[in-house]
Structures are given as C-alpha cells and as structure tokens.
Amino acid sequence: MINRLISLIRKEFIQIVRDPRALAITFLMPVMMLILLGYAATNDVRNIALAVLDQDQSPASRALIAAYRAADYFQLAYVVSSEEEMRQLIDNNSARAGLIIPPDYSEQVNSGRSAQVAFVLDGSDPTVANTALSAAILIGQSQSTRIVTQRLERLGMSRAALSPIDVRTQVWYNPGMVSAYYMIPALIGQILQFLTTLLTATSIVRERERGTIEQLIVTPLRPWELVLGKLAPYVIISFIDMLEVLIAGTILFRVPINGSLILLLTMSALFLVTTLGIGLLISTVANTQQEAMLTTMLTLLPSIFLSGFFFPLAAMPVWLRAISYLIPLRYFLIIARGIILKGVGIASLWSEIVALIIFAVLVMSAAASRFRKSLD
Asked: How far apart are CA 225 and CA 370, in angstroms?
C-alpha cells in the first residue's frame, strides 16, 4: 500500500515539474499578491495634497499651517491666492483638500476670541476624505489646545490646572496601526484557499480530460489512495507558499509573529483539509479545466468579500454577516491574525477551531463521497 501511494505521489511530482511555467507561477504568485496587497491594499492614507489660502499672513496663521504640515497626513502642495484657484486644483485632482485662513485670524486668536478657519475636502473618494476629515479635526483641536494653554499660562495658571482629564491611549498588538500587519496574516489563508482549490480541481479534471484517470482506476489503487496521492504534492506546495508569505511578510513589512508557529502550521493544515475538499468537490462537478477554474473563482469571490479579508464584518448588514458564517476562511483569518498579531493560543480561539473542524469533516466527507461515485 505504501509503495503504491509513494509511486502515485512521485508520478504527480514528475507531472508538476514537467510544466515549469505553471510551477514558477505557483511560487511567484504568493509573492506578487503579497507585494500588491501589502503595499496597495491599505487604508493608511498619507501625504494628502493640501492647498492653502492664507489671507492673514501672520505668525499665528503660519503656526497653524506648520501644524498641518508637520502631520504626515498632509503634504503642503500648493499655496494659492484665491478660492477660485483652490477650486480648480481640487477639480483637476491636483489637490484633495484645502485650508482657508481668514484675514482676521491672528486678530481673533490674539484677542481671545474663537477664530474660524475653513477646511475643504474632495469627497469623491470617501476613504481619503474620511481620513483627511479626521486628521484635520484632530490637528485643529491640538492647535486650539496649544493656544488655550499659552493663554492660561500667561495668566499664571500652572500646567497641571489646565486639563482636568488626561487621557493616555494605548494601542495593543499593532501600535502603529499598520494595515500590512492586518493584511499579511489574511493573505496566508487566501493563498492557501486559492492555490489548493484551483490546483486540486484542475489536476483531477486534467486527468479526466486526457483519459488517464481511467488508467489509474484500473490499477490496484483504492479510491482514498488515489485521492491522497493526487492531493499530497499540492499540500506540500501550499505549505511552501505559506512559509514563503510568512518570511516575505516578515522581511518586507516587518510583521511580528507573536504566537506559536507550530500552532499556526497546525491550524493551516486543518484549513487545508477544507480547501482540498472544496477542490475535490469542484473536480466532481467540472468536466473541463476551464469549468474548474471558473467554479473556483466563483467560490473565491464570497471568501474575499465575506470573510473579513478586505472589509470588516461589523460594517456589513445583518443578513450578510449571517452568510459569512458559512465561509471557512472567516474562521481561519481570526485564527491567523490572533496567533500572528496577538500571540494568543487555543484557549482564545477554540470556537473558531471547532468551526473549522466541522467544516473540514463535512466538506471532505461530501467531496470524497461524490468523488468515489464519479470513479464508479
């Protein structure tokens, strides 16, 4: 039995190596996805082009401009002389925000009254606009607090009496709130699902297209040996890709791995059982490799949008959140992010682990049953 299984696995590896371009794509795709998603798919909006209309031209107005320029959210790209010029810059996307300081700004500040400034935002891109709005309000409040502090200190009040509440914030697990730290663990699950499902489905369908699966059926191989022998090489390739993403993410994005690597590998193997079952199930439905690819893409789309990979589940409607519980990737992303970023163990992830075990048993049982019938 062992010899038959080893022979089939060896035959699969030989077949994989005979297609060097597909093999190269298999190992290059994770790195390409890592670079594209790690750098491009981020909510860390920085260096927003800012146009400034300073109608006051005073030390107070220059201090306000310096406060906005010091924050890495904005880049002082243009100094304009009129509101019409600012509108033109925002209309042609040269600037995404504008700061308008009135002529009496310093007079209002120095007299102790409330000075009003206008901050104009291009709302055509809500992501950039929301970030710019929050940053603009925060910088304005910080500058206002600084001015009030200076006024009260001139009156002889101590700094301790200025603020009755001192809120000191702490951000755990991802202090810099870097989006890449959140995306890289998710990429492990996405790559595992995509590669194992696609490669498994197309591999078995390819045998059916070429008529070679009949040759395998008439051999002494049992159905489970045939399945195991066909899937084993792709399990190894998927684990190599996962390690590739982990190493590249650690080197390129400095993602800290705070938890147990052994636990992460174990949970990845559990998730692989589910994705392999999905690929095996697709292979019993599809008759051609093209059908297998299209069906794989059809299963991939819900996983991307309903698993928390890109968009937070809390922001989705209730009915979509209910559907997301049927997505195995949802549970693996919580596990991967929990182990890598938070360093938690099984005690904190047991509900997601149980859900993955249930999915693995159900999907693999259904896939093996249908595959056995298709062989008959």
From this structure: 15
CA distances from 232 to 126, 225, 345, 352 (A): 46, 10, 28, 25
Check whether 51 has a pLDDT greater than 90.
yes
pLDDT tens by residue, 21-48 = 777 777 887 888 778 777 766 666 778 8
The helix/strand count (H/E) of the chain reads as 14, 4
* β-bridge pairing 118-121 and 74-79: unpaired
**For the chain, what are the domain ranges?**
19-41+178-375, 48-161
Burial status of residue 291 (CB atoms within 10 A of its CB: 0-12, 13-18, 19 or more): middle
Q: Is the dihedral of CA 250, 256, 261, 264 positive or negative?
A: negative
- In this prediction, what percent of the chain has a pLDDT beyond 70? 87
- Residue type for 101, please? I
CATH architecture of 48-161: 3-Layer(aba) Sandwich (3.40)
Burial of residue 24 (number of CB atoms within 10 Å: 0-12, 13-18, 19+): exposed
